[in-house]
Amino acid sequence: xxxxxxxxxxAREFFAERFHDVxxxxxxxxxGLHGWEEPAYLRAVLRRAVREGATAEMATTTVxxxxxxxxxxxxxPDRGQQREAIGQLLEAAVTALQKVSAGEKPELTPEExxxxxxxxxxxxxxxxxxxxxxxxxxxxFWNVLEDQREDIELAQRGIGRIEMFGHPEYDWAGTGxxxxxxxxxxxxxTVGIFAETNSEGQWQFRPGITGWMNYxxxxxxxxxxxxxxxxxxxxxxxxxxxxxxxxxxxQTVGSPIPLALAAEPPPRLEGRQxxxxxxxxxxxxxxxxxxxxxxxxxxxxxxxVQPGILHGMLQFRDVQLLKxxxxxxxxxxxxxxxxxxxHQVLGLHLSSRYLEGxxxxxxxxxxxxxxxxxxxxxxxxxxxxxVQTVNSQLERLARSRHWPEAQAAISSLYQRAFGxxxxxxxxxx
Length: 429
What we know:
Elements: H1 3-15, H2 19-32, H3 40-43, H4 56-59, H5 79-102, H6 110-124, E1 128-131, E2 134-135, H7 143-147, H8 149-156, E3 159-165, E4 172-180, E5 183-186, H9 188-194, E6 195-197, E7 203-205, E8 210-214, E9 227-235, E10 242-246, E11 261-262, E12 270-278, H10 290-295, E13 304-316, E14 319-324, E15 336-339, E16 345-352, E17 358-362, H11 370-374, E18 379-380, H12 384-398, H13 403-418
Parallel strand pairs: 11-18
Antiparallel strand pairs: 1-2, 1-13, 3-4, 3-8, 4-5, 5-10, 6-7, 8-9, 9-10, 12-13, 12-15, 13-14, 14-17, 15-16, 16-17
Helix pairs in contact: 1-6, 2-5, 5-6, 12-13
């Protein structure tokens, strides 16, 4: 499949029956680019440097774009040039979407293909910044993320970068996330960057290298690798998965909290909405045009939330894998694949390719795995309906004087969700 056909196919998959809605969104955004401020969700994924220190003179600048240079100025540091070029890309995207929705084999110009590709990355599968612990404004196409903002921002607190001191080549290895107060889950491939096996077959840090967990390496935040990785608890012999022992997070406002893994698969594995939280890096196998590289060059190396949907299971040799389409822009091994309804962790992301699907380890298949059980990995037992029922009870009880009853409900929910009582976890609530 050539690049144009792949982009058309992705547009049909992502926008499906909502072509007219997307066209309307893009037309409104194009109109908004004539003003001083572009929509917030566009700012969240465009090159960041153009938004720093911009002047009114820059904002009113226009640019003439020749066919061979179409879209190039969208990555320029001049804010006016960038906004005008993005506006032209959006116009091309509208034309392309109209053609795609009207016929099976649309004839698209190179400019329209580039516009359609940009629309996919801006609206269909955006990579939203996490800044100061807060999720950037999502596109209206994903307004469900706004509805779930509080839960998403809570979940992202337990996900961070595995950083290294003393490594001759890399500053950080990949993404990891807390599965209890002192245990990180990441990929075996990530651990292989900074660790090795000794003569007895046990995993250990390479000489001179130390590892740290940084939960707050997001946009506009100075580095703060505060939690040292103390040991390698285990590396799975079948799945690309590893567990690390890390210093427990400090109990402060906004501190990292463990995520609960789904003990059972969700009711359906086809078309279910999910999101990936991690630190995408650029995939060397990409073949996107230079304009796309320039527009999205700053999407990498900081915490991002990338929404998408599930596409069922895949059997690869003797392991099961979960297919999804969240990671369109880059590779982010070790990222956390989370269900958008229950906010339980469904999978450990392994790999993906530009504009193609990704695969993750379905973590419920490892619920009885000795390595995870021995490390005390948290598995959730309550489903979304159960959580909603208890929340309704708590809202009612919060308006009454029956606090002991409310405490019992909280304890019951906690026990169903995490397999233990709050007291067993040191009173954390």
